[in-house]
Write a structure and sequence with these properties.
219 residues, 67% helix, elongated, HTH-type transcriptional repressor FabR, HTH_TetR, DNA binding, DNA-binding
């Protein structure tokens, strides 16, 4: 079993840097976490040591580890929203459809940048109240953007509407994030299976919301 003991004073000191940026500290925190190490378990001294600075220099960029972690969550959310938004735009010229392409993009990002995604998908359940609130804000951003997309896509189909589009968007967002958290513990060979499952479940939610509003999707 791999040990994740924190650095201590017996370890050889790392070279100290003259200056440090917020990005340097965020990168240092990401370098320390992994499948069995949450950012909520990191100490300020560990992050400072990884970044090659004195602990006091940390405070030039962040008040504490909570502020650093919230910054990581926000960066992960902004990055993912941008990528998913681009996927929705590409879907207009794709035969795979917006649902399938969006889910594929989500899974690709999860595998390509799993540490940052780990923060976004896991800290909301394992971290402090500040982390949970930060994750919830990111989820709300996703839900707001998805709600607008659902309304737009339905309207483009002969003026169809959805019953409670905000609730449909919330159901889809929470589903995808829960499935993404599960995927982190599974090998990439399971990705296609998860993509198919998520795509089917999302379509079920959309079909249900439209059918309840009296506008079922056309075959």
């Amino acid at each position: 079993m791999t040990s994740h003991a924190p650095a201590n004073d017996l370890d050889p000191p790392a070279p100290r840097k003259a200056g440090i940026s917020r990005d340097d500290l965020l990168a240092a925190a990401l370098a320390l976490i992994g499948p069995h190490r949450s950012v909520s378990t990191l100490s300020l001294r560990e992050v400072a040591r990884e970044a090659g600075i004195a602990p006091n220099s940390f405070y030039r960029q962040f008040r504490d580890m909570d502020e650093l972690t919230v910054a990581l969550i926000e960066r992960a959310g902004q990055s993912l929203r941008t990528i998913i938004g681009q996927a929705r735009q590409r879907a207009a010229g794709s035969d795979r459809g917006v649902v399938r392409l969006s889910v594929e993009t989500f899974m690709e990002q999860l595998r390509a940048d799993d540490k940052l995604m780990h923060v976004l998908l896991r800290e909301g359940t394992a971290g402090s109240d500040a982390y949970k609130q930060a994750v919830d804000r990111q989820l709300n951003y996703f839900e707001d953007e998805l709600q607008r997309d659902l309304i737009r896509l339905a309207a483009a189909d002969n003026g169809a509407v959805l019953l409670e589009p905000a609730l449909a968007a919330k159901a889809i967002t929470r589903l995808v994030f829960a499935m993404g958290s599960t995927a982190l513990d599974l090998p990439p060979t399971r990705d296609e299976e998860l993509i198919v499952q998520m795509s089917h479940m999302i379509r079920m939610i959309i079909t249900g919301a439209r059918t309840l509003a009296g506008h079922p999707p056309r075959d």
